[in-house]
Structures are given as C-alpha cells and as structure tokens.
Amino acid sequence: MTQDFAEWLGGMLRRREMSQKELADAVGVTPAAVNGWSQGRTEPRYEKIAAIAEALGVAVEDAVSRRPPESTRTELEWVFQKAPEDGSRMGGNVAAYAFTANLEVLAREATQNSLDERVGQSLPVTSRFVLHELTGRHLKDFLSALRWDSIEGHLREAADRRQKAGRVLIDGLNELERTGRLVLLRIDDYNASGLTGPEYGDGRFARVVRRTLDSGKMGAQGGSYGLGKAALWAASRFGLVLVNSTLSEPQDGRHERRMAGRLELPWHALGGEEFAGPAWFGTTDRDRNNSARSWWADGATTESLYLERVDPSPGTSFLVVGAYDGSGVTEDLEEMYDQLVAGVAHNFWASMVGGEQAGPLLRASVAAWRDGRVVRPERTIDPHVYEPARSRAVKAFLDGRTTSELTARDDVLEAAVLLKLPARKEPQEGHTARPESHSAVLLVTPTSEDDVRPDRISFMRATRMVVRDKKVNDLPLGHRRFQAVLLAGQAAGSSPDAAAAEEFLRAAEPPDHNDWTGTEDLTATYVRGARQCILNFKKAAEQTVRDLLKGQEEEGDTDEGPQILRDLLTLDAPKKPRSQGFPAVHTVEGEVSESGAWHVRVTVKLPERDAAWVLSPVARFVVRSGGNIPVKWAGVLVPERNCELTKSGNLLFRDGATRAVFRGVTDVSSHPVTAGMSCIEVDVPRAKEIME
Questions:
Q1: What distance in Å separates the CA atoms of residue 526 and residue 25, rounded to the nearest whole number?
Q2: How far apart are CA 457 and CA 128, in angstroms?
Q3: Which of 135, 146, 152, 430 is the most exposed place for a label (fewest CB within 10 A)?
Q4: What is residue 62's predicted lDDT score, i.e. its pLDDT?
Q5: Residue 548 to residues 445, 484, 598, 661, Cα–Cα distance (Å)
Q6: What span, in angstroms and rounded, lies between the C-alpha atoms of 56 and 681?
Q7: Residues 272, 157: Cα–Cα separation, whole Å
Q8: Per-residue model confidence as pLDDT tens digits over 336-358
Q9: Positions of E strands within 546-612
Q10: Residue 574 CB-density burial (10 A; 0-12 exposed, 13-18 middle, 19+ buried)
Q11: Is 199 exposed, middle or buried (0-12, 13-18, 19+ CB in 10 A)?
Q12: What sign does the dihedral 116-117-118-120 (CA atoms) show?
C-alpha cells in the first residue's frame, strides 16, 4: 500500500539524517509546519512538496507519489550480521550442501523456481542463463560497483582451511588473484511473479533474500523445502548472489529494479568484532540496527552490476558472482555453457513442448560473453532436438492425437495408470470428500534406431519437470524401441483427483526432486501405506509399458520367430539406420564486429539421401514476444566445408555429406536493434528454386 505523506516524510528525514528544523529552514517554513506534516495533522501544497523534494534530494514525482526514491551507488553498503552473544557459531549455510555441486543441478533448481512463479496461463515463463567472464578493466569496474573493498577482508578472515566453506573461499580468492578472471552467471526469468512483498514481513522477497528453509510454496509448485534457492549461493565461489526484480505487484508504489544482495559466509572475526557470517547489500535501514534494505536502483547502477533486464515483463534476475562448477567437471566458459544447456534440456524438455491449443510452459536459452563480446550466441533450447520421440509424445497428448495401437513410426499410444491416494492424517479444512484414486496418463511412442538411450520412461507432474528417468527392464523379446512418458497429477489434466495426486506426489519428492519415494513429509502427512502406494504406482507404470508392447512387434510370420532374430538370420542386406528427415542447424558460433554486424559460423547436420541438398539459410533476431525478426545477409554466404554457392546465392551441400559448415555476415541496415543488444538464430530451409 502507498504510504501517507507523514510516514513518507518521516522515513526520508531519517534516511537523510535531517532534522525537522533543517528541513524547515531549507523549505522556508516554520518548524511547527514541518512538525504538522510529520504528525499527519496537515499536508503541504504542491509547491511546498516540490521544495521538500529538492531539499531531500529526490524527484518531485517520488514526493507526490510518496514512494521511496531511487538509490545511487554511493548510498549502498554491506551490512554484516553480528555474532550472537551466546558464542554459538555457524560454519556456513547447511542448505547449500543439500544438492550435488554442479551446474546441471543449478539449472534444474533455478528453472523449477521460475516455473513455480509463472504468471497467468497464456504465456510461458522465459528463463535465460547468461555467463559473462570479466577480466581487466571490466573486472575492476564491476568489483568497484560491488564495493569489493568492503567485503574482501571478511572473505579472507572467513577462509578457514579447517572448514569446507572456508576451503571453497580460499580456492575462490586464489583463483581470482592468480587468473584475474571472474565469471558471472545471470539467471533471468520473465512472465514470473518477481520478488514481491514487504522488506521484512511475509512475502516472496523475504523468503528468498532473508530466510532459509522457507519456500511458501503449495499446490502444483515444485519445491516444498525452501532449498532450491540455496543452489544459487552454492554455485558461487564466494557464496555471493545479487538480485534485480521487476514486480508483478507494486511495493511502496514501485515495481521496477528492486535490488538486493546476500553474502553467505561462515562465522568469522574481523577488527576485534565477531560476525555470524551472512551479510546484506543495500541501503542502511535507520529504523533497524545492523540492517540493510533492498533498494530501487537507477539505470546506471543496474548496468554497472551486470543486472540489466532486457524485457519490462515481471520476473527476477539472479547474479551468481564467481560462478563455478563445484564438481570440477567443467572449468572454462564454453564447458559451463554446454553444461547449462544440457541441464535445462535434460530436466525441462517436456515443459518446453507446446501443442496447437496449449502452449509451452517454459522457454529457455543460454548465452556466454567475455568482456562484453559474444563467445557463444544465445541459444533457445528446442526440446524436439534433444528429445525428439518423447517431445512428439507430449505434443500428441496436448493436441489430442494419441492412438490405441502403433501403426506408424510417429504414433503415440496412450494408456491409464492408476495411483491409489491414501487418506491424510489431518483432513484439510474446507475440502469435500477426497478422491481415492487418480488416473495418470502413460504415453509410449517408437524411437529411432540411432537413439542411444532407448526404452526409457520419464515421470513428471504439473510443471512437466522430469522427476525420474529410468530404463524399463524385462521387455518382450523383439519389441520396438520406444520412449515412454508418465504424466501424473495436473500434468494429466485438471480435476479434483489430479489436484489431490499433485499434493500427494509433491510430498513424496525428496529435496533433489529426483524420485517419488517415502519422505518425512509423506510420513507426517499421510496414513500408513502411503509409501507402498508410490511403489505400486511406479511398478504399474512399467508393467503397463510391457503390456502395451506385447503384440507391437514388427509384422511378420510369428512361426519364424521374433523380428530381431529374423534380421540376424536373413541373407538380405541389413536395413539402413533411420536418420532425421531434414537438415538442421547443429551449432552457431558468432560475434559482433566493430561495424555492428553479426559474424556467424554455422554447422549443419544433414540426413542421408540420394540427391544433394540445396538450402537457403535465414538469420533472425530473437525477440521475447511474437515471431523472431528476419535480417538480411551482407553479400553472399561463404562455404567452408562440404558445400558451395549456387548461381542464385543458395548453398548446395555435397551428396553424402553428413556435416557442412558455412559463414555469413548480417546486413547492419536490416537490424531492428543494435546487434550488441540482440541474440541471433539461423535456420536452413530448403531453397525455393528446388521446392518449385
């Protein structure tokens, strides 16, 4: 709610450390008049409000609207929490060790949180992962904006080799000093709620920035432990994360650029004082000792901290400072990029599938920069590239095009799997009779011969995040290679039993959200036998797959034995492995030149066929709403491997080639926005001269 003028004026006087008499002198009124304004007995006229705003150093609009002003960099401070007087100590945030320390887990937890905060049902939530490596001047300027000099001493004192958190800090500080390199990972979401709510009271902001193990989630949302956000701090060598949020609901009359920072350190002492560990970055709260508030940032501060948002829609940007892969599997920027892509694609391919009537729940992309230059262009993840068979199955379900038997390579079988719902120990208030069972949806579809991980089943619920993925065993001899998907809870539809199943399965997920099993929450919420209901459900899903595959072997005389054995004994030439039907872009590498043009190098994956392919590559700028915008090529494309130019300027790809490479430069005059503020994608449709 908007403050009244008296409350706003009192807060600003404390913030500016100005007395009522000093304000009266600056405005040209008596101290009694200022006292009347501060007590709410009277309100000043507009011209006096303008004078008050000038005296306080704020915009007139802020005074009229009674909202907090934007804060500049000079007002920001790090405030460390003092150690408790009872001598107790914390060796770090235990929540940060609840997950495996790698970037794939970070991608899963962050994207799930974004999906949980999706606003409305018409548009997907957009999740962007942007890596940015800083060196030299870029690094120096960022550390200055971060007030690194205020926290470096705390970091070094907290770096105790006897503690796990301390050893991570030592390694991070040594790496920064040795290489002069710092990796930032910004995770943006759009069409999400944002960090709404008051500074200290209950709300999204306090749960994320101030509290631990408090998720406030319920219903179809993914998390229930409040642990997911800890993966962000665990992915920082220094336990340091900044946030910038655009709110879906205004707070104190504002909704853009609500910023804050939190540093998670173990107990340490500095300058004769003891500190509990955590610290917050913001403006000093004059009403609360040893506290820092979030601040409403100006554009310059947002830019200096690499937290600019590219879209005005609500959501939050998290900046992981000193991002790294704690497992040690990836070290350089390119490897980190690949692991983030794999993490999102593996866990959320189904969330990114849309149908003719129901759009996708999620759109995700990954990009990598180094000192302001593109290292890997932003790639929007296509689920049909990473999981073609299973994505086809989910799309068929969304479009209502499933079948009862497999008669073609692209058919999708649909069957029901029953989940028994046990009673709750304490019935929920206001609820009618609880459903006793839920009918989940099982989808089975054939997969290609080159699928390296066939015969698997994926389990998921409302947000369609993959909760479990496993191989189905004891399959019929000679069965068709397949992929299966189990849609449970509200992923299967909207109904009372789906909602009840959603609550039940959510309680059965451990903190890692990687299975449905017996958990403390399940035991505390449901009567005895709940765990067995889960086990029976998973077994029933696999058995239903086996039953569906019976009678779905390749056609032929059953007296001759299964097809798999007949193929081994036949004198005919073996069948050629199936491949993709159309050429597709495999990778795009590029950078923006000094002239402002995109220079790209494109690798194309080509399916086998008798005739050569003739393609007409198209470049597009990626936008957040509507279709992506085509841009022109500057001059002709440059063939590099296994292709050549035709007279029409198209590319002829050599017969038999499976990979080909070409280069191109975009025409700056056709750019809808500056290339440095854009992301580019390349498509390879067939040339019209051939199609005609």
A1: 67
A2: 28
A3: 430
A4: 87
A5: 10, 11, 50, 43
A6: 49
A7: 12
A8: 999 999 999 999 999 999 988 88
A9: 584-592, 598-605
A10: exposed
A11: buried
A12: positive
Report the alpha-carbon distance of residue 57 to residue 69 in Å, rounded: 9
What's the rounded Cα separation, in Å, for the pair 76 and 71? 8
Residue 458 tokens read as 């994926």
CB count within 10 Å of CB 67 equals: 20
Give the C-alpha separation, 623 to 672, whole Å.
10
Tokens 């949302």 appear where? 221
Q: Are 513 and 505 in contact (CB under 8 A)?
A: no
Strand-pair partners of 440: 417
Q: Which residue has the tokens 């018409």?
A: 122
Q: Whose CA is closest to 189, among 375, 373, 344?
A: 344
Which residues have CB under 8 Å from 361's CB, separation 6+?
115, 118, 124, 125, 351, 352, 463, 464
pLDDT confidence of residue 558: 42
Amino acid at 102: N
As given in the structure block, the two tokens for residue 30 are 């008596």
Q: What angle do CA 369, 115, 403 make, to 5 degrees?
A: 110
Do 343 and 105 form a contact (C-beta atoms < 8 A)?
yes
Distance CA 364, CA 345 (A): 9
* Measured distance CA(6)–CA(37) in Å, rounded: 6
Quick one: residue 666, left, alpha or beta (phi over 0 = left, psi -120 to 50 = alpha)?
beta
pLDDT value of position 381? 96
At 544, which helix (H) or strand (E)?
Answer: helix 530-549
Give the separation between CA 544 and CA 98, rounded to whole angstroms.
Answer: 34
User: In terms of residues, how long is the chain?
Assistant: 692
Residues 420 and 226: their CA atoms lie apart, in Å, by 28
Supply the pLDDT for residue 99.
60
Structure tokens at 204: 């999204």
- The per-residue b/e assignment along 333-364, b for 16 or more CB within 10 angstroms, e otherwise, is beebbebbbbbbbebbbbbbbbeeeeebbbbb
The mean predicted confidence, pLDDT, of the chain is 87
Reading the block at residue 374, the tokens are 């593109």
Measuring CA to CA, which residue among 341, 303, 483 is closest to residue 411?
483
CB–CB of 111/335 below 8 Å?
Answer: no
CA distance linking residue 189 with residue 235, whole number of Å: 18
Q: What's the rounded Cα separation, in Å, for the pair 614 and 634? A: 20
User: DSSP secondary structure string, 466-505?
Assistant: EEEEEEPPSPPTTPPPEEEEEE-GGGS-SSHHHHHHHHHH
Q: Are 519 and 476 in contact (CB under 8 A)?
A: no
CA pair distance 509, 516, nearest whole angstrom: 5
Which tokens hold the place of 493? 């539809």
Q: Name the token pair of 482.
A: 């397949």
What residues does 460 pair with on adjacent strands? 466, 487
Q: How many CB atoms lie under 10 A from the CB of residue 206?
A: 18
Distance CA 94, CA 209 (A): 16
Adjacent-strand bridge partners of 495: none
Calculate the alpha carbon distances from 530 to 220, 421, 425, 490, 545 in Å: 19, 8, 11, 19, 23
Residues in the chain, pLDDT under 50? 219-220, 222-226, 554-579, 625, 690-692
